[in-house]
Amino acid sequence: MAAVVGIRAWPRPVVFVGETLLVSVCYYVAGRLGLSQQLVADGAVVTPIWPPTGVAVACLLLFGLRCAPGIALGALLVVASLTAPRLSAAGIVLGNTIAPVCALLMLRAVGFRVSLSRLRDGVALVFLGALTAMLISSGVGVGMLVLTDKLAADDFWLVWLAWWVGDAMGVVLVTPLLLLLHRARRSPPSGRWGEAVGLALVVCVLVPVVTYSSISVLFLVYPLLIWAALRFQLAGGMPCALYASVMTTVAARDEAGSFGALTDIETMMKLQAFNGTLGLTALLLSAVITEQINTRRSVERACHELVEALQHLNAGGSGNTGPPGRGAG
What we know:
Blueprint: H1 2-8, H2 12-35, E1 39-41, E2 44-46, H3 51-63, H4 68-80, H5 87-109, H6 119-132, H7 134-147, H8 156-182, H9 193-211, H10 221-232, H11 234-253, H12 264-320
Antiparallel strand pairs: 1-2
Helix pairs in contact: 2-3, 2-4, 3-5, 3-8, 4-5, 5-6, 5-7, 6-8, 6-12, 7-8, 8-11, 8-12, 9-10, 9-11, 10-11, 10-12, 11-12
């Protein structure tokens, strides 16, 4: 407790600088992880999943707008690690900062809850926080590349689409997982340790086999995803979806499995379609199941309180009944 009080007693500028550096480091590390899984499509380098957008949106949802400078600094560090700071780099940093902030503002406007305990929260995160807000980062980033002659105008739509989907997948796959970790409990729900370990083992073994199989059997991932979401909601669905997406991206980068005979464009399209449907299924199915469980618990709680109230009324009424008292004298 004394340590917590001591941290809170630090001057606000020191706390702000510390938070900014921490957010920027998290953003930079996520960026380097995303860049490690690059693909080449028609001569352009793309990232099918861009984790920094998920990190940025999660930090803003949890800690507010004070994280925006850290996001900008992290984006600048990622861009600086790839190329010398120029006008195009400034535009990319600006777009990557404004897009998560707009996602936060839109999600706040519709009453988004970080618990993701309602279907409307999952839908809002997908369609507002991911698909809509990330139009800004992709549009500004690719637009700046074209304006500064870093990218041919004919390649605009292809690179924009890949950029947009990669940013959106970062929000869909990474943000829910970070929000879940922020409020994680030490024990899994209902203590289903055995089932959780069994599910993890099956996923870890079967997913690489499916993704590297020469036969196109990627659909076999969905039964595992449904099992994880039905039994463990976000705690099971989102890690399963993220792991399957990463393994599929690795297979696509290695031109292995069902991606071996495809062109670069076909590989990108197939991979992004698979990752997108996987992330949407995991997030929305988990949100639906969580909402149903919470509704059932609320009904059970209301019924229990009603029974207690009726028992209390009956007890009070029975206490007032009995033989009439005899008068004195």
